[in-house]
Amino acid sequence: MAEENYSVLNPNQFAINEAWIAFKLNDAPIRTGEDGDFNVIALMDAGSCFILGSEFVSAGSAEPSQLESKRLLKTGQSHKDELPKKLIIPTDQNAELLTKEAERLGIVVTRIPESELTVYLDEAREGFQEHVSGGRAH
Fold first, then answer.
1. In this structure, which of 42, 81, 97, 104 has its CB flanked by the most CB atoms within 10 Å?
2. Which residues pair with 38 in a beta bridge?
3. DSSP secondary-structure letter at 48?
4. Is the pTM of this model over 0.85?
5. What does the alpha-carbon distance between residue 67 and residue 48 come to, in Å, rounded to a whole number?
6. CATH number, residue 70
């Protein structure tokens, strides 16, 4: 796992599928009546800002499980039938199992402060929040 010094990252620094970013998409846990509360871990291509996939993780869990980590990376891989060279994860996010799974697949994992990922995260989270709130009354 590498700690690198970056300024704020932006998409023009990456080719498509060169690097993915794994991050928590929601601000507050999503409540469901039957299954409890969840956090959503999203996987985004750093070059295109395309959301490759997401996993709903129990809000009671500190991080995605090994199975959830495998599913998230497999979903990302299914888009172009290849894995990225690098996976970027915010330093304040628990992701030990996701890191281990990515490294097992030969992906270099880089942990950087979330503040350096604002170009990616802010818009994705805003869009997700609108989607979850329905954007309008139903």
1. 42
2. 30, 58
3. T
4. yes
5. 26
6. 3.30.420.10
